[in-house]
Amino acid sequence: MKSSRKVLVLIVGLLIAGALLNRSTARFAQITPAKGTSISVCNVVDVFNNCERAKAFRDQLAQQRETVNAQKEHRAKKLEAIQMELEGLRKGSEEYKKRLEEMWRLGYENEGWEKAQAAIMMKSYQSATQEMYEQIVNIIADVAKERGVELVLFRVREPISAETGQDLAAQISRRQVLYSDEGLDITEIVLARLNQVYRDRDR
User: Fold this and answer.
1) What value, to the nearest 5°, has the Cα angle with vertex 71 and ends 65 and 73?
2) What are phi and psi of 54, to 5 degrees?
3) Is residue 162 within 8 Å of 171, Cβ to Cβ?
């Protein structure tokens, strides 16, 4: 019975993959260049992951997380201290009520502070990512014009790997470049240009 279910899941996954691949092919057909058009490919994810600016930003974000975690630990210790005090106070006494209210207030403040810090870091990440993407696209355009290229497609290099048919279908649907000669790949050129711009920013 379990074997039959696995086969059924696999069949459904492959059917989904086929449907998504057909959609992807249809979309790609809409941008099929005219005969004689010069084409290049670029792996934008590789550029993102390996550029010096992104690495520096990840380091900066890690430091921010460390700072936030240290502050979070400090705030938690203050709450623990109040809890310990409460254990030594008589329940219902004025001092007990006062310290209990203070613990509640700090708890709510900590919760709001943590959410605010998470939102600030997320906003910083989104802004930096958008800015880097726009910079990468501009550099791709510059490189393409210099090489007389009229169309640059996103090439995914990572091998397909999925445990379920649904994941497999999603991965297949994202691969719009099924083959390209290595000479068409401008990823390393774009990465080198982006890194040079980053190094020159303060000169």
Assistant:
1) 100
2) -65, -40
3) yes
In the chain, the largest separation of any two C-alpha atoms, in whole Å, equals 87
Q: Which residues in the chain show pLDDT less than 50?
A: 1-22, 24-34
DSSP letters for 34-60:
PTT--EEEE-HHHHHHH-HHHHHHHHH
Instruction: Return the half-sphere exposure (C-beta side, CA atoms, 13 A cut-off) of residue 123.
Output: 6
Rounded Cα distance between 160 and 95, Å, is 63
Question: What pLDDT score was predicted for residue 20?
Answer: 46
* pLDDT number for residue 171: 73
* Res 157: pLDDT: 74
The encoded tokens of residue 127 equal 């802004």
Q: For 93, phi and psi rounded to 5 degrees? A: -70, 160
Question: For residues 98 and 84, what is the distance between their CA atoms, to the nearest angstrom?
Answer: 14
Q: What is the DSSP letter of 7?
A: H
Residue 166: the pLDDT is 64
Q: What residues have CB less than 8 Å from 198, skipping those under 6 apart?
A: 51, 52, 53, 56
First to last CA, the chain: 68
Output the pLDDT for position 164: 62
Its pTM stands at 0.69
Strand partners, 40: 152
Q: Collect all residues with Cβ–Cβ distance below 8 Å to 197 and sequence separation of at least 6.
A: 135, 139
